């Protein structure tokens, strides 16, 4: 949580010990680590996964953190 009340976060997935795909909350887009992850990035963006990930990082996750750390 930032002092102005805004939230900063990220989501990153790996496979076989290497980076695979990450989510840039500022741009609300997935970033593929390589050409293999590009297939997943396209599919997830078509399926609306980016919107769900944005909602999780901006709302659900902070609410849970506030609950458990006593904010």
Automatic annotation (TrEMBL):
Pfam families: MHC_I. Keywords: Disulfide bond, Glycoprotein, Immunity, Membrane, MHC I, Signal, Transmembrane, Transmembrane helix. It is found in: Membrane. It is a single-pass type I membrane protein. Residues 3-69 form the MHC class I-like antigen recognition-like domain. GO terms for biological process: antigen processing and presentation of peptide antigen via MHC class I; immune response. One of its GO terms (cellular component) is extracellular space. InterPro entries: MHC_class-I_related, MHC_I-like_Ag-recog, MHC_I-like_Ag-recog_sf, MHC_I/II-like_Ag-recog. This is MHC class I antigen. It comes from the Eukaryota.
């Amino acid at each position: 949580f930032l002092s102005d009340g805004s939230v900063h976060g990220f989501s990153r997935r790996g496979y076989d010990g290497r980076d695979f795909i990450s989510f840039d909350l500022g741009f609300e887009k997935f970033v593929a680590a390589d050409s293999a992850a590009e297939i997943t990035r396209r599919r997830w963006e078509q399926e609306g996964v980016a919107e769900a990930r944005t909602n999780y990082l901006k709302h659900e996750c902070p609410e849970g953190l506030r609950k458990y750390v006593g904010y």
